[in-house]
Design brief:
The protein is of the alpha/beta class and 232 residues long. Helices cover 40% and strands 20% of the residues. The longest helix is centred in the middle third of the chain and has 19 residues.
Length: 232
């Protein structure tokens, strides 16, 4: 899993981020000072930096400027309590790739991290930004440009919500997603957390994707949730 560098001097915030992101499978390193960023990036080679603005040593803005001056193209997501337009503009102009204002929803943070990591991977592979890729697992293929799914060269008819659920699982093969994470990501916070809608849609996907095919790709991890993988 990707390695994230968290630069945050508020222990409550950094502990929350550390626990939450580790639970999602990320490798985490936490530092508290702005003047530790460049050295930490050089030594650890993380995949993304979560950077607070108000830091001891030097500010997050200056730390980001130094990274960019050293030709470091690492994705930088700024986290700050300052929500004025000029603060956001300053953060983006210093070289940050995205900007999230505290307090924020954890699911939004996860979505932004995933988007930045995906963009960085596309850039590293020489793909044009925004170009959708094919997601593949065994003989299951998801064409993100056309929003079409095929298994064993057979076209499958999926609803918009089924497509969203399948995309989430296919982007992270082997990763276990809790019902709560799936519910929040695919349906949003407005959905009743006690609903069984996730289980209903998993059954629908199984009927369309796994029935009549080998191997089965959608697996239940008892007590934890669901994952998409070739191995049971």
């Amino acid at each position: 899993m990707p390695h994230l560098l968290i630069v945050e001097d508020d222990r409550r915030v950094s502990d929350f981020l550390n626990r939450g992101l580790r639970a999602e499978g990320y490798q985490i390193t936490v530092v508290e000072r702005g003047d530790q960023v460049a050295k930490s990036v050089e030594q650890l080679q993380p995949d993304l930096v979560l950077l607070d603005v108000m830091l001891p040593g030097i500010s997050g803005v200056e730390a980001c400027q130094r990274l960019r001056a050293n030709r470091c193209r690492l994705p930088v997501l700024m986290l700050t309590a300052m929500d004025a337009v000029e603060d956001k503009v300053a953060g983006l102009r210093c070289g940050a790739d995205d900007y999230l204002t505290k307090p924020f929803a954890f699911e939004e943070l996860l979505a932004r991290i995933e988007a930045l990591l995906r963009r960085a991977e596309q850039h590293a592979q020489g793909e044009p930004a925004g170009k959708a890729r094919l997601l593949t697992l065994a003989d299951l293929v998801f064409d993100l440009d056309r929003m079409q799914v095929r298994r064993a060269e057979q076209a499958l008819v999926l609803t918009a919500r089924e497509l969203a659920l399948l995309e989430l699982l296919m982007r992270h093969p082997g990763r276990v997603f809790s019902r709560e994470r799936i519910l929040n990501t695919v349906w949003g916070y407005s959905e009743d957390p006690l609903t069984n809608v996730v289980d209903v849609y998993i059954r629908r996907l199984r009927a369309k994707i796994d029935e009549g095919h080998t191997p089965a790709l959608i697996h239940t991890v008892r007590g934890l949730g669901y994952r998409l993988d070739v191995n049971p």
